[in-house]
Amino acid sequence: MGEFTGKAIVSGIAIGKLMYYSKDAQQVKRYKISDIDAEKARYEEAKNTAIEQLNQIYEKALKEVGEVNASIFEVHAMMLEDEDYNDSINNIIESQLVNAEYAVACTGDNFSKMFSEMEDDYFRARAADIKDISERVIYVLKGSGSTSGPNEPVILIAEDLAPSETVQMDKDNLLSFVTRLGSSNSHTAILARNMDIPAIIGIDIKEEWDGLNAIVDGYNGKLIVDPDEETLNAYIEKQKKDTEAKELLKQFKDKEDVTLDGKHIKLYCNIGSVSDTAAVLKSNAQGIGLFRSEFLYLESSDYPSEEVQFQAYKTVAENMAGRKVIIRTLDIGADKQADYFELGKEDNPALGYRAIRICLDRPEVFKTQLRALFRASAFGNIAIMYPMIISVDEVLKIKAIVKEVTDELKEKGIPFKEDIEQGIMIETPAAAIISDELAKEVDFFSIGTNDLTQYTLAIDRQNAKLESICDTHHPAVLKLIEMVVKNAHKEGIWAGICGELGADLTLTERFLKMGVDELSVSASKVLAVRKKIRETKAN
Ligand code: PEP
Ligand code: MG
C-alpha cells in the first residue's frame, strides 16, 4: 500500500482500478490482421456490448430525465443495427485485412461526413450520432482487444489532461481523475466538477500503477494505491456516508431558490455539452447560466458546421423546455486549443488571441455560430453571452455583426426570437472597471471569476506552481464583483456569477448581500447552493 498527497480539487470518494492514460494509446491504430472471421466476430461482440450498454443507459435515463430526453439512446442502439453501417465495417475488415477499430473509425468518419452533407435537417443532425456510436464501439473494442481503453469504471491517472482530451472521454467509465499537473480552476477541473467525480492534482503518478486498485479521497487530496483491507473498508464506509449525505440533499430538489427574507435568486447550471443537460434536469436548476459552446469545437476535428451547432443548441433549448439557456459564444484559445484553428504558439496565450478577439478577427467563424444560435432561439428560451470583453467598442462591433446575421435571416424568412437577451461576461478587470458604461449596452452581466481572478491577481490559472498563493477570496476580486453588481443594477440589468466561485458556499451570503441575482454552478452543486440560499438573508 502507498499513500500520496496532492491537492483535492473536486471532493468525493472514489474506489476502483487505476488506469494510466497516455496520449498515444488513444489514437485508433491501423494494423493488419490474418483471421478475417475472428476480427468480424470481435466487431460483432463489441457491437452487441455497445447495444446492451445503450439499452441500460436508456432505462436509466428514462427514469431520470423522461422519455423524450432518453429516446436518443434508443435511437443510437437502433443505428448500430443498420445494415449499410455494418456492411461497410465488415467490408473494410475483409478487403483491407485490417483491425475492427480502424474499420469502425473509417466507417464512422465516412457516414458522418455523408450525413453532414445532406439537404434534409434531420439527416444532417444524424452526423453527430454516427460519430457517437462509432466511438462507443471503438471504446468497447479497445477494452476487449489489444489497446488500453477501459470498458469498466476506472480512476484515470495522467501527467496532465487537456480539455480537448477530457471532453472526448467516455464519462460513464470515469470514477475520478488524478494528475500531476493542473490547477483547481483549469477547464479539466471544471469538467470533473460538471461530471461530479472526485479529482486530485499534484500527485507524482507512475505508469506501473496501471491496473492496481486504489482509493481517491477528494476531501483530503489523498491517493491510496493498493490499499489494505482495513483502509479499504474504512473508505467503503466513508463513501456510503457520502452517498447518504447526497441523498439527504435531494429533499431540496423541488424547493424554490429563495432567501430567508424572500429574494428570488436565479440558480442556474454550467454545462459543456448537450449530454450535460440530463444532470441539469435531475438537479432541477432553473436554467443554464453558461453553456461553454467551445467544447463543441474541441470535440470536433474540424469547424462544426452551422447545422451541427444548430442541432446542439436547439436540443438543449428543447430539453430545457422553456427554462433559460444562456449560450456563451466560442471561447477558444489559451488552454482550449483545437488544431484546425491554427492559432499558432504564443508567449502568453492567456493574454493572447482568444475568445471574442478571434471571433471579431474571423467574422466568418463568428457568423456561423451566431446563425446557429439565432435559428435555435426559435425553439426555446435561448440567451447569448459574449466572453473576454474589455471594451465598449467590442460590444458595438458584436452588435454590428449580429445585425448583419439577423438581417440575413429575416431576408430569408428564417424564424428566430427577435428580443433575444444578449449579455457579456465580466472576466477581465477592464470590463469590471468600465461596467458602468458596458451596462448601458447589454441585457445582463455574468461574472467569470475564474478569469477575473487570474487577470486581477496576475496568477496563471493553469500554473500548478501558483496554486498555493492563489487566494480566490482576494479582496480585490470581491470588490470588483461588488462594483459590477452595483453598476448593473444602476442600469436596471441583472448580474450573476458563473465562475467557480459562484458555488463557494462560504461566500454565498456575501454575494447575496452584494445583490448578486444569479448563481450558475455545476449541476452537482445545485442542491447544496439551493440549501444555502434558503438559509441566508439577502439583506
Ligand atoms: C470564468 O472565467 O470564470 C468562466 C466562467 O469562463 P471559463 O472558466 O470557461 O474561462
Ligand atoms: Mg473565462
Count of separate DSSP helical elements: 19
Bound compounds, each kind once, are:
phosphoenolpyruvate, magnesium ion
Strand content: 5-15%
Mean pLDDT rating: 91
Give the strand line-up of the largest sheet.
1-8-7-3-4-5-6-2
C-alpha Rg (nearest Å): 24 Å
Q: Structural class from helices and strands?
A: alpha/beta
Q: Terminal Cα separation, in Å? A: 52 Å
Shape by Cα distribution: globular
Percentage of helical residues? 40-55%
Described by strand count, sense and barrel closure, the largest sheet is:
8 strands, mixed
Number of separate strands: 16
> Which blocks of ≥5 consecutive residues have pLDDT under 50?
144-149
Give an account of the 3D structure.
This protein has 539 residues and is of the alpha/beta class. The strands form two sheets. An eight-stranded mixed sheet has the order 1-8-7-3-4-5-6-2. An eight-stranded parallel barrel has the order 9-10-11-12-13-14-15-16, surrounded by five helices. It binds phosphoenolpyruvate and magnesium ion. Phosphoenolpyruvate binds next to β10 and α16.
Secondary structure blueprint with pairings:
Elements: E1 2-5, E2 7-10, E3 13-20, H1 36-79, H2 83-96, H3 100-116, H4 121-144, E4 154-158, H5 163-167, E5 174-179, H6 187-195, E6 199-201, E7 213-217, E8 222-225, H7 229-249, E9 266-271, H8 277-283, E10 287-292, H9 294-298, H10 306-319, E11 324-328, H11 356-361, H12 363-376, E12 381-386, H13 392-411, E13 422-426, H14 429-433, H15 435-438, E14 444-447, H16 449-457, H17 475-490, E15 494-497, H18 508-514, E16 518-522, H19 526-534
Parallel strand pairs: 3-4, 4-5, 5-6, 9-10, 9-16, 10-11, 11-12, 12-13, 13-14, 14-15, 15-16
Antiparallel strand pairs: 1-8, 2-6, 3-7, 7-8
The protein binds phosphoenolpyruvate and magnesium ion (MG).
